[in-house]
Amino acid sequence: MTYLFIADLHLSPEHPRLVRGFFALLDAYKHKKTQLYILGDWFNAWIGDDYSSDWLTSIVNALQDFTSCGNQVYFQVGNRDFALGQKFLDQFNGVLLPDVYTLTIANQRYHLEHGDALCTDDVSYQRFKRIIRHPLVLGILKRTPLSFRQKLAQGFRKKSGSAKQNKNYSIMDVNETAVQNVLQQTDFLIHGHTHRPQIHHKTRIVLGDWREHDAMLLEILPNGQQNFFKWTYT
Predict the structure, then answer these.
(1) DSSP letter (8 states) at residue 43
(2) In whole angstroms, what is the distance from residue 72 CA to residue 76 CA?
(3) Which residues are CB-neighbours of 145 under 8 A, at least 6 positions away?
(4) At 48, phi and psi to the nearest 5?
């Protein structure tokens, strides 16, 4: 069994190279009995499980092929795809994980999360997150017309990009106290979101965002060996 951790792919029809890179990863690992953990922002935006398109169908088909070989797919929502639910994952026997999840490998505990909850200094974002992800608000949004949600998602992306330009980058990074509070309860912390791939003090592993040719991924073998490596694609 191989445990593979990725995050921040931001897949969309506007960036076919990223989609091809994801397909290549599935193909490379489909005969390795892999547990694939996608820790948020799998898609650049997700407007609901009722959305469909040719490019998304091709992804579902690739995942069906991947899981038919005995592999498993686990997903945690991110700030871009928090509306993605079990209905979509059911198409390829995927599993929706809670926002915080603990996985044990070789007697070591791994705390998994997207990472945005650790960025507590970004007060305006945390306030927005509490509102938009409230079950009542989310339930109402899922009942609105698909066309409305598409326009809403475009507006969110533009607003998010504008807000980032006016913020100090350190504010959008993790808060050290929040990180230490997590590490007191586990052996390792794995997350994405910040787009700053690195291993900190051998205990906090930050996955990389997917770029035009590569991304930093984490592979853990059954004996606990960790391989933090650059995945390249064309």
Answers:
(1) B
(2) 14
(3) none
(4) 140, 155
The one-letter amino acid at 27: D
CATH number, domain of 219, equals: 3.60.21.10
Helix residue spans in 108-227 (DSSP H): 123-132, 135-142, 146-165, 176-183
Alpha carbons 141 and 145: distance in angstroms, whole number:
9
Residue 46: which pLDDT band, with cuts at 50, 70 and 90?
Answer: very high
Q: Confidence class of residue 163 from pLDDT cuts 50, 70 and 90?
A: low
DSSP H stretches of helix in 166-221:
176-183
Q: Are 207 and 216 in contact (CB under 8 A)?
A: yes
- DSSP H helical segments within the chain, as ranges? 16-29, 54-68, 86-89, 123-132, 135-142, 146-165, 176-183
Name the strand (E) or helix (H) holding 73.
strand 72-76
Structural domain count of the chain = 1
Strand 204-206 and strand 188-191: pairing? parallel
Phi, psi of 96 (to 5 degrees): -85, 120
pLDDT digits 0-9 by tens, 53-111: 999 999 999 999 999 999 999 999 999 999 999 999 999 999 999 999 999 999 999 99
Q: How far apart are CA 130 and CA 169, in angstroms?
A: 21
Closest CA to 214 of 25, 62, 73: 25
3-state secondary structure of 202: coil
Range of the domain at 65: 2-232
Residue 159 predicted with pLDDT over 70: no
